[in-house]
Every structure is written in structure tokens, then in C-alpha cells.
Design goal:
heterodimer, A: 638 residues, alpha/beta, 20 helices, B: ABC transporter transmembrane region fold, 10% strand, transmembrane (chain A)
Chain lengths: 638, 612
């Protein structure tokens, strides 16, 4: 079989995980994939059984040979069949093993591919809140390492079958050969098992500790690398290196414990096997003295078999945790298959019509979690081509209403949203999302070139189109200044670009896609004031005549809007033009005077002491990140 | 007994160029890799000697099987038989002890190597200039520093140890076989030579496929990371199928590579060689016994030795792959260690007088690895104590000027002078003691607020930290936190708003008390409170020192002693707000587009924009 190696952590089944499903249920789900290959699996399994039988028969042949050699009338003529059959058997065994390995590898790789892509597809279309609540790293672990672990589990289960066969077969033959020797050998089993369980008990603890320490080193190094510019500008490289050295030393200290454990385990197992066959020889001699029944061939056979079953036992003891962790992985994978699917199209869903771009919210309420409404009873209509500015405090529900509910990332809890005269629940999501362009707060770029990112929403765009869009929003200049211009690769989500530059690229991307309805969610918040004003001017021109919702963060946006809507704690509280709303002297006027009016102003007549105290943006979070990027012991300065 | 004080190549000291130290010491990747054995020679020597002893004893135990059985065959349950058994048990006992110690010593040395090499790698890498970090993905560097160093350790322990134990076992076994019979000895020797050659070739074939599998897997994982991080974007462009197709493509490639690896390991030729030779030895041995050249015990010894060799050596290819993998990784790491840095520290560093002016003289600059110039023929003089504002569109080169002043890079042509001394004749450490950069995107460490502020001055007292925080307008906020200055920020602690992060960075800069302050202040805050606090904080920071500020803030522009207007890497004009406003069209255009002139109250706009 494969000559792979695995870290100690894997072998010890570190990831103890409470399974939600019984083994039966898990196997039943696995069956869905296995059944396509059932005949190949049967074939491979019979080959493996055959191979195990061969491994049992070869020592028997050797025994026969030795017995024949020691007989008085020994001659090569009598020995020849034994030698030939030994020869044939080992070569056949090798071939059979090769064939079964090939079959299993084929099945395994195909299945892994199937499970992976199915899982990925399922995740791609699963409920938005599911994805948002999980960290992308966790989801990725499901797709990559859990599926991999499952594949390993399948591989291991076949070798477990072979090993069990070997153990049982060897013991049966031993028992038939000589029951006293068989009993001696059996006595070694608990010792071997004991050593293996010491390994898994202490090993688990030590390996966990080593891993955690490894995580600290890794976290420290990660931080050192991402903060390298800061470290350099304050000449603090030495101190960071010293901090790393301390953690590194700690990792070494724990690793040393692991080394100590290894010193105990492996040599002991091998010493046990040597001691065992020495004892077998001694016992055979002793038995010979009294009853004189054991032939040399039998003794040789016993030695050979005793070796053959001691190592499989150790292997077996180590395989079970791996198998268990494969089941755990399977369990987590099924969690995803069982997870709530994303919104699916109604069976009779039509394409969104193009005639009418008005948007109507009718009694819209929404809760992410049951009963916990973030939007309440929103009633509002935007005429085709109208520019609507949306204002309100953080958490008022602006993003939820326009960036999430309108493109139907989530379905409204109550009420309806109409575009023209079509309820968005009755149109295909594909046509809906093609009609709506969304520029999110956090600019997100894919790996690939700048150019590829811009044409993401319109893959067939010509180069002229791309360039003219970029020129209009003043992006051309900085893109050309990049290393390879438009063909510059985006690395690490764009670490060499400022967030303003990233944002301009995402704006270009949306503009190029040419949507009919536009949602700009603080789309220019990361631009410098000068660029922003240029971008906005271009936007106004480009999007003239389209229904547009601008979640506003600056005065200049509000100024251009046809109407302004004000959200407060999930309710729509005010609608109207700037002048109308100012006259109302309500929430808008208040917001305007504290947030918008003074932007960029030179002098402000507020004393710093009058400012309200700030609050923490997010309270202390419960630990959610994997442990390896955290430090537990924090040095407190005196 | 084996406890020794940590031996590290480096002792803490200020100006050690670790890269040249390492390169001088180890010369190349191979030497660096194998140097591992020389770093802890005592451990490895002892480990190796113990390994020989234990292997000799175990092989001898196996060889004694034949002797014991011969006695049994000829003499029955005799004294000689019992003596042999006792001897075997003693051998087993001592080999157990020797092997355990050998495993332990070897493991200790290898874990030390892992620790030392990791530290070495990190310390060299972090001394590389920003040119290195611009072209290298920090995730990859991290994985090299962690995982690839691990794989170097695995190459020494268990791979090298087990390979040595196999080789020693084979040599000693052959010696015993040779003693039994010349022909058996010579043919098994040849068999094992062939075995090793084929195994080495095999490992060489499997290694790259393993590597490919690893690359495929990391590609899968980054595709998936990206997809789920950007799920909003993917969905809003209705591109799920496109993303799935990308993933499917790589997943298929992974499956194909996995199959290739499986095929290779299925037809593992070395295994066939050893079984065939065992069969041959059985035939030959039987013939020898039948013709009375051998005792039956000799035949059994030969068979037992061969069987035990087979059992112990089936792992050889896996170990060889590990060893080769370790060497490959050492090469990759070495390539990063020996990075040719375009920024060279002066061998005889000068110091400058920061109380005089700073001058850019005909500076041309392109980022390393780029042919495009980010700065072209930039010249200007900054008098001491001046407030300089840099303004220009994205890609105009403003931020680049700040980076050059901090000597994160050197100009390609032209030079920057501090009172007549070129910047590249000064040591970066020295420059950075006097120059501080507050970047637009603030990086804070996931540590306490105290640690973050005092990052610029590790020996700062609590009082100093408090004053810095106060001047940066962040003290009040910090005091309101339950753990005050000991509050941990970042992933494990509280999340701060952009404005709060910025002010912590300002406090950090205040504490370093630089002669020259570089400030990138491109984005302006959204709400009035944040804005106001920031403005006070910045005012404090700029007080009494030379400052160069990238800004769009009208206040800063109006108050600046000198404004440098940049476009496409060139200086368009230099002057005060009034001067530029009166003569520079570009500047007028820009000012017109600054938010204030878009405002709703023209009276205010007038008072600032045109008010003179």
C-alpha cells in the first residue's frame, strides 16, 4: 500500500469531536458515494483477502521446506515443488497487492473529487447566514482537510481488514501448530496493547501541547511578518525576534517530552518482539525435552507468525483513532450537506422584466434570528431612475435592507419587495442579480490580475470598455502606475494596494457590469476626498437614469439625491428632500448637524470636552478563532 | 544528562547583519542543511554509536536463532541451548536500552535544530528590506518558516535516523550472512545495492508528486477561502458556477495527481527484489543443507535475517522521500535567506544632522522588480521645522516619498540628503530612530494597548504612555475600558474603530519623539467627533518638528508651510496654499473638488476656499 507518513497528531486521533450521528447513519451517507464503485471495491477487497492468505501461506511453505530438508531422505527433487510454489506465491502476492492498490487509489481519488466538488457546490449555494457565521477558514477546512481525512479513513479501513485477517489467521495457525506456544504469544498481546495505549494516552496530551506551542510560534511569526513595516519603522526587529525565541524554546521543551515518549514506545515494541521469539524458542526446547513433538519447521513457523501478528496489533491500535477521526470528518461533512440550502428559485420563476425599474418595499420586516427584528414594516417606493440617499446611524438596518434583501441574499421575513410589478420571490435569482449592481463597504478583490477583477461581472468586455471606465473614474492613472499596469497580479487580496485603490477597482467592476439598479453601500468611504469627488462625479454621469440607492456617508452624496430616506432602529422614520427634512427638525436634522455638515470644514466650534465618550465598537468577543493563533499567557507589565 | 544550555548562533546585539553572517557560515543550501549534524555533534555521534550497538545486538539475536536451533536439533534441551537463549535475552535487553537512548538523543538534537533553524530563518528574513516583502506573499513565508522547517526536522528525525539504522542493519546482516556463506553474502550485497539505487530513484519520482499534491491542496484551500470571504461579491455578480468550475478544475487535478502517486507506490519494484532474493536464498540454502554444506540452523538464520530485513526496510522509500523533501525545502528556504537585497546597508555608516534641512535631489525611483518609475526627477528642499503637505491623486507618488524618507527603499537615481549627508550612507536603524511614519492603514499587534503604544519605546514609563495617550486624544477612551491600558486588542480582544486605531498609532508615534514625522492621512474621518479628535491629535504630533503629511485636509493644506503637488510621479508645483491657488490650475481644480466646495453652505466654502 501507500508508503505515506503521517504526523503523530493524525495517528493519535487528536481531534476528538462529539459526533452527532451514529456510525450507521454515517455509513449510509457514505454509501451514496460508495455504491457507484461497489463492484470494484468487492474486487479489490477479494484481492486483499487473497493477499493476506498468501502472507499466511508463505511461512507455512517455508516450514514445510525446513521440515523436508531435515528429513533423512531429503533431496532437491522433493524440495523443488516447495521452492517453486514459494517463488510463485511471493511474486503473485506482489502483483495482487499492486493491482488492489491501483484499484483502491482510483476509487479513492475519484470519490474524493466527487465529495469535494459536491460539498463545494453545496456550500456555494447554501444559506448566506450559514456562510457569514462560519469563518471562511473553517469552511475551507471542511472542503480540504475533512474530505482528505475521509479519504484516508477509507484507505485505512481496507488495511484494517487485511490486518485483522493476518492477526486472526496467524493465531489460528499457531494454535493448530502448537497450543502452548500460541498461548505464550497471546500473552504478549496485552503488553503490546498496553504500550500502544500509553502512546495514545500520553501522546495525545503531549501532542496537543506541542501543537498549541506550535500555534503560538506560528501566530507570533505571522504577526511579525504582517507587521514588518511597523517593526522596521520603530527598530523593533530584535525584540520581536526575542519574543519568537521564547515561544520557540517553549515549543522545543514540549517537543522534548514527545521525544521522551517516543524513546519509550518504539524501542519497547521492537524489544518485545525479540523477547517473544526468544521465549518461543526456549519453550519449544523445553517442550521438546518432555514430549519431543515440535519440529524445527514448527518452531520457525511460530517465530515467523509471532512476528507477523505483533506488528499488525500495534498498527491496528494506531489505526482506530484515525478511523474515528475519519468518522468525525464525515460527520462534519454531512452537517454541511444537511445545512439549510440557500434560497432557491420558485418553480415557475420568470426572468426579471426590463421595462420597469421601480422598486417597492411593502411592509418589509426582517429578522436574522427569529423574533429579533432588524427591520420593521418598511414601506417605500422608488421611481424608476430615482437617486435615493439612505442615512441613519450604524446598525439602523441600511445595509440589510438594500445590500442583502434587495438582491435576495436573504428572504424577507414579512412583506414583499417588488421590482416593477414583479415580486422578487417570483423571478430567477440569476436575472435579479444581473439587474442589480452592488458595491459593498469592504472592497473585495479576487486573486488574478487587476484586469480580470474589473471584468469579473462582464467577462466579454473589450479592453477599450475597461479603459474608458477606468479613465472616467480616475483609476487609470494609478493602475497604469502599478508594476504591470492592468496585468498586475492581486496578491493576498491586494496587500500592495491601498483600500481606496481597491475600492476604485470594485467600483469599476460594477460600473462595467452595467446594472439597471444600483446599490452603493458606502462605496466611496475609503477614497481620499479628492478622488472621491471625481468618482462621484463620474458615477452621477454614468448612472444617470438608473434607480440608485446610495447608503451615504458624506454630504456630497446627499446633496445630489432626489430623495433621502432615514432609517432608525430598523424603522423608516423620515422621507423627503434635504430641505423638507431639515424643516422637519427630526432625526435627519440631528444627523446632519453632527455627522455631515462639518465634513472638511476648517474650524469647528465644539470643545473637545463636550464630545460624548466613545464606546467600544464590539465588546470582547468569545473565543472563536482556532487556538493556534492565540497566546494564552500574556505577560503583564508591572 | 543531555541538558545543555541553548546554543544559538546569535546573541542579541544591535547592528548584526544576520544574513551575511549565515551566508558566510554555511555558504550554500546543502551545507546549511547538513550543518545540522555539526551543530550538535555530540548528540548525533552518541546517537549514532548507540544505534550501531543496538542494531548489532538485534541482528545478533536474530542470527542466534539458528545457533539455538542447531543445539536443540543436535543436543536437545542442553546447557549450550540454554546459554544461547540467555545470551539472546541479554542482547535484547541491552539493545532495548541502547535503542531507547539513541532515539532520545537523536530526537533532542533534531528538535534543537528545528528550533535554531526556525529562529535563524525568521531573523534573517525580518532584516530583509521591504523590497523582499513586496514580492513575497507573507502567507507563504510563514508556511516556509513553520512547515518547511518542520520537514527539515523530519528529514533528520525520523528519516535520517531510520535510514542509518536500516543501512547499519543491512551491513551487519550482510556481515553475518557472509560469515554463513560467501555466495549468499555477495548476492545479498548486490541485491541491496540495486535495492537502494531503485529506492532512491523511486523516491525521486514520488517526491515531486507529493509536492504537487501539496500545491494543489493549498490552491484548493485558497480558492475556497476566497470564495467564502467574497461570497457577497460572487453572488451579486451571479458567478457561483464560475467559481465552482474553477474549484472543480483544481480538484480534478488533485485527483489525477493522487492517482499517479498511487500507481507509483503500487508497482514498488524494490519490494519485489527483496522477496525474489529471499526465495532464491531459500532455494540455495536448502540445496546446501541437502548436500550437507550447511546445518539446518544456518538455513534458518539466513531466512530469519532476510525476513527481518524485509520487515524493517519496507519503510526505506518513505524515509528517502522525507530526506529528499527536507533537502528540497532547505533549498527553498535558502533562496529566501540569500535574497539579494537592493537596499544595502553602508559598511561605514554616517550620521546626519537632523536639525538642518532635508533635500530630494533629482530622485528617480521604481519599486524593486518594476520597470515603471513611481518617481521621476523629484527635487525639493524642506527647511527644518517646516510643515510640508503632499497632495495628488492615487498613484501620484505621494506615499512613495514617505517610504523613501524612512529609507524603506533607496532611490534608483539621485539622492536624498539630510544636511548634505546622503540617506543611503546612513544605517536604516539610525534613520528610523529619527524618522517615524504613521501609515494610512494602521497595523496594531494583537497585544495590550500599553504594549502597542510603547512599541516605539519599550522602556517607556506608565506616565509617559499615559501622557502620549492623552496628547493623542485616546486616553479618555482607554480609561473607560475595564482593563484600561492592559486591554488586549485585535482578534482576541476588543475591536477598535478606525479613528481609535489611528489615534493609538499617533500615541505610538508621539512616544518615539522623532525629528522627522511622516504622516499618511489620505482618508478623512466620517463623523465630526472622530474628525475633531483626530485633528487635535495630529496637531499635537506635528508640534515642534519637521513633518511631511500626505493629506486632503484643507486645514492642513492652508496651514502648511509648503505644499508639494504631485502627479504621475512628478512634482507639478511647490508653494503655499495661497501661491498655488493663485498660479496652479491643477491645484485649483483639486481644491474645487475637495468636499468643502461641494458643501451646501456656500458661505463657509468661500471663507475657506477663496478667503484671503
Amino acid at each position: 500500500m501507500g508508503h505515506g507518513t503521517r504526523g503523530p497528531g493524525r495517528a493519535l486521533g487528536l481531534e476528538k469531536h462529539k459526533r452527532a450521528r451514529s456510525t450507521k447513519v454515517l455509513l449510509a451517507s457514505l454509501w451514496k458515494y460508495l455504491k457507484n464503485y461497489i463492484w470494484s471495491i468487492f474486487f479489490a477487497a477479494s484481492l486483499i483477502i487473497l493477499y493476506s492468505l498468501f502472507s499466511l501461506v508463505t511461512p507455512l511453505i517455508l516450514k514445510t521446506g525446513i521440515d523436508k530438508v531435515t528429513e533423512e531422505d531429503a533431496s532437491m527433487k522433493i524440495l523443488m515443488p516447495v521452492i517453486v510454489s514459494f517463488f510463485v506465491l511471493v511474486i503473485l502476492g506482489w502483483i495482487i497487492n499492486s493491482i488492489s492498490t491501483i484499484i483502491l487509489t482510483k476509487i479513492n481519488s475519484k470519490m474524493l473529487h466527487e465529495v469535494r466538488t459536491d460539498l463545494y457546490r453545496k456550500l456555494s449555494y447554501s444559506d448566506m447566514s450559514y456562510i457569514k457565521n462560519e469563518q471562511s477558514g473553517n469552511i475551507t477546512a471542511r472542503v480540504t482537510s475533512d474530505t482528505g481525512e475521509l479519504a484516508t479513513g477509507i484507505q485505512i479501513s481496507t488495511s484494517i481488514v487485511a490486518q485483522l485477517l493476518l492477526i486472526i489467521g496467524s493465531f489460528v495457525i499457531l494454535l493448530v501448530t502448537n497450543w502452548v506456544i500460541a498461548l505464550i504469544s497471546i500473552a504478549a498481546v496485552p503488553i503490546a496493547f498496553g504500550i500502544s495505549s500509553i502512546l495514545s494516552y500520553f501522546g495525545r496530551k503531549i501532542v496537543l501541547r506541542v501543537r498549541r506551542a506550535f500555534g503560538y510560534v506560528s501566530g507570533k511569526m505571522a504577526e511579525g511578518l504582517s507587521g514588518i513595516a511597523v517593526a522596521k519603522s520603530f527598530n523593533r526587529e530584535e525584540e520581536l525576534a526575542t519574543e519568537l525565541r521564547e515561544l520557540n524554546q517553549q515549543h522545543y521543551n514540549y517537543s522534548k517530552q514527545f521525544g521522551f515518549l517516543m524513546m519509550f514506545v518504539m524501542p519497547s515494541i521492537s524489544a518485545l518482539s525479540y523477547a517473544l521469539f526468544t521465549l518461543i524458542i526456549y519453550m519449544s526446547g523445553w517442550l521438546n525435552k518432555t514430549t519431543n513433538v515440535i519440529s524445527l519447521g514448527d518452531i520457525y513457523l511460530s517465530i515467523n507468525l509471532s512476528q507477523q501478528f505483533l506488528f499488525p496489533i500495534v498498527m491496528l491500535a494506531m489505526s482506530f483513532p484515525q478511523l474515528e477521526s475519519a468518522f468525525g470528518a464525515m460527520d462534519r461533512i454531512i452537517d454541511i450537506f444537511d445545512a439549510k440550502p440557500a434560497i432557491s428559485d420558485a418553480p415557475d420563476a420568470k426572468s426579471l422584466q426590463e421595462e420597469d425599474d421601480s422598486v417597492h418595499f411593502k411592509n418589509v420586516s426582517f429578522a436574522y434570528k427569529e423574533g429579533n427584528y432588524v427591520l420593521k414594516n418598511i414601506n417605500f417606493s422608488a421611481k424608476p431612475g430615482e437617486l435615493i440617499a439612505v442615512v441613519g446611524h450604524t446598525g439602523a438596518g441600511k445595509t440589510t435592507l438594500f445590500s442583502y434583501l434587495l438582491p435576495r441574499f436573504y428572504d424577507v421575513t414579512e412583506g414583499e419587495i417588488y421590482i416593477g410589478n414583479q415580486n422578487i420571490k417570483e423571478v430567477t435569482q440569476s436575472s435579479l442579480r444581473q439587474a442589480i449592481g452592488l458595491v459593498t463597504q469592504e472592497p473585495f478583490l479576487f486573486s488574478g490580475t487587476v484586469y480580470e477583477n474589473i471584468i469579473y461581472g462582464k467577462p466579454d468586455a473589450t479592453e477599450e470598455e475597461v479603459r474608458s471606465i477606468c479613465e472616467r473614474i480616475n483609476a487609470d492613472e494609478f493602475i497604469e502606475a502599478l508594476q504591470h499596469g492592468y496585468n498586475t497580479k492581486i496578491v493576498e487580496g491586494g496587500k500592495r494596494l491601498s483600500s481606496g485603490q481597491k475600492q476604485i477597482i470594485t467600483i469599476a467592476r460594477t460600473m462595467l457590469a452595467n446594472p439597471r439598479i444600483l446599490v452603493l453601500d458606502e462605496a466611496t468611504s475609503r477614497l481620499d476626498a479628492y478622488t472621491e469627488s471625481l468618482v462621484q462625479a463620474a458615477q452621477m454621469e454614468l448612472f444617470k437614469g438608473r434607480t440608485t440607492f446610495v447608503i451615504a456617508h458624506r454630504l456630497s452624496t446627499i446633496k445630489d439625491a432626489d430623495r433621502i430616506i432615514v432609517l432608525d432602529h430598523g424603522r423608516l422614520v423620515e422621507v423627503g428632500t434635504h430641505e423638507e427634512l431639515m424643516e422637519k427638525k427630526g432625526i435627519y436634522q440631528d444627523l446632519y448637524t453632527t455627522y455631515y455638515a462639518y465634513q472638511g470644514l476648517e474650524k469647528v466650534d465644539i470643545d473637545i470636552e463636550e464630545l460624548e465618550p466613545e464606546i467600544v465598537e464590539k465588546p470582547i468577543k468569545p473565543k472563536k478563532k482556532p487556538a493556534q493563533f492565540k497566546l494564552d499567557s500574556k505577560k503583564k507589565k508591572p | 544528562m543531555f541538558v545543555k544550555k541553548t546554543k544559538s548562533v546569535y546573541q542579541k546585539s544591535m547592528y548584526i547583519d544576520k544574513q551575511s553572517l549565515i551566508i558566510e557560515k554555511y555558504k550554500n543550501a546543502n551545507k546549511w542543511f547538513w550543518s545540522a549534524l555539526l551543530r550538535y555533534p555530540f548528540h548525533y555521534l552518541i546517537g549514532f554509536l548507540l544505534l550501531i550497538v543496538s542494531t548489532y545486538l538485534t541482528v545478533n539475536t536474530t542470527a542466534l536463532i539458528g545457533t539455538a536451533l542447531d543445539y536443540l536439533h543436535e543436543e536437545g534441551f542442553s546447557t549450550n541451548f540454554n546459554k544461547t537463549i540467555t545470551l539472546m535475552l541479554i542482547f535484547v535487553l541491552f539493545s532495548w536500552i541502547a535503542q531507547s537512548l539513541s532515539v532520545y538523543v537523536w530526537a533532542i538534537a533534531s528538535f534543537r535544530i528545528q528550533r535554531d533553524m526556525r529562529q535563524e530563518f525568521y531573523e534573517v528574513i525580518q532584516q530583509h528590506s521591504m523590497a523582499f516583502f513586496d514580492i513575497n506573499d507573507s502567507g507563504i513565508i510563514l508556511s516556509m518558516g513553520m512547515n518547511e522547517i518542520n520537514s527539515i526536522r523530519l528529514a533528520f528525525n525520523p528519516a535520517l535516523r531510520m535510514l542509518l539504522s536500516s543501512v547499519v542493519g543491512i551491513i551487519i546482516s550482510i556481515f553475518f550472512l557472509w560469515r554463513a556463506d560467501f555466495y549468499i553474502g555477495i548476492s545479498i550485497s548486490i541485491a541491496f545495492i540495486i535495492y537502494f539505487v531503485i529506492a532512491w530513484i523511486y523516491a525521486g519520482k514520488v517526491g515531486p508528486i507529493r509536492k504537487k499534491l501539496a500545491t494543489d491542496l493549498s490552491e484548493l484551500s485558497s480558492l475556497s477561502q476566497e470564495m467564502f470571504k467574497g461570497i457577497d461579491t460572487v453572488r451579486s455578480f451571479d458567478n457561483e458556477e464560475k467559481e465552482i468550475a474553477k474549484f472543480e478544475h483544481v480538484s480534478y487535478r488533485y485527483a489525477e495527481d493522487m492517482k499517479k502517486e498511487g500507481y507509483l507506490s503500487a508497482f514498488y519494484w524494490p519490494a519485489l527484489i527483496t522477496v525474489v532474493f529471499t526465495a532464491g536464498a531459500f532455494a540455495y540454502g536448502s540445496w546446501m543443507v541437502v548436500n550437507n554444506y550447511f546445518t539446518i540452523g544456518t538455513l534458518i538464520t539466513i531466512l530469519a535475517l532476510l525476513m527481518s530485513l524485509n520487515r524493517q526496510n519496507f519503510m526505506i522509500p518513505a524515509r528517502l522521500i522525507m530526506l529528499q523533501g527536507g533537502i528540497q525545502n532547505a533549498k527553498r528556504l535558502w533562496a529566501k535567506i540569500s535574497f539579494q537585497d537592493p537596499l544595502i546597508e553602508p559598511s561605514d555608516p554616517l550620521t546626519g544632522n537632523w536639525d538642518k534641512g532635508i533635500e530630494f535631489r533629482n530622485v528617480n525611483f521604481a519599486y524593486p522588480g518594476t520597470s515603471k518609475y513611481s518617481l521621476r526627477d523629484v527635487s525639493f528642499k524642506i527647511p527644518v521645522g517646516a510643515r510640508v503637505a503632499l497632495i495628488g491623486g492615487p498613484g501620484s507618488g505621494k506615499s512613495t516619498i514617505l517610504k523613501l524618507l524612512l529609507r524603506l527603499y533607496d532611490p534608483n537615481e539621485g539622492a536624498i540628503f539630510v544636511n548634505g549627508t546622503p540617506l543611503n550612507q546612513m544605517h536604516t536603524k539610525y534613520i528610523r530612530q529619527h524618522v517615524t511614519l504613521v501609515e494610512q492603514e494602521i497595523f496594531l499587534f494583537s497585544d495590550t494597548i500599553r504594549a502597542n503604544i510603547s512599541f516605539s519605546k519599550p522602556d517607556a514609563t506608565d506616565e509617559e504612555i499615559r501622557i502620549a495617550a492623552e496628547r493623542a486624544q485616546i486616553a479618555q477612551f482607554i480609561e473607560s475600558l475595564p482593563q484600561k491600558y492592559d486591554t488586549v486588542i485585535g482578534e482576541r480582544g476588543v475591536t477598535l474603530s478606525g479613528g481609535q486605531r489611528q489615534r493609538i498609532a499617533i500615541a505610538r508615534a508621539l512616544l518615539s519623539n522623532p525629528k522627522l514625522l511622516l504622516l499618511d492621512d489620505s482618508t478623512s474621518a466620517v463623523d465630526i467627533k472622530t474628525e475633531l479628535r483626530l485633528r487635535y491629535a495630529m496637531e499635537e504630533l506635528m508640534k515642534g518638528r519637521t513633518s511631511v503629511v500626505v493629506t486632503q485636509r484643507l486645514t492642513t493644506l492652508v496651514e502648511a508651510d509648503m505644499i508639494i503637488l504631485m502627479k504621475k510621479g512628478k512634482v507639478v508645483d511647490i508653494g503655499t496654499h495661497e501661491e498655488l491657488l493663485s498660479r496652479c490650475e491643477e491645484y485649483q481644480f483639486m481644491c474645487k473638488h475637495l468636499p468643502i466646495n461641494n458643501g451646501l453652505e456656500p458661505s463657509v466654502a468661500e471663507s475657506v476656499g477663496g478667503g484671503r
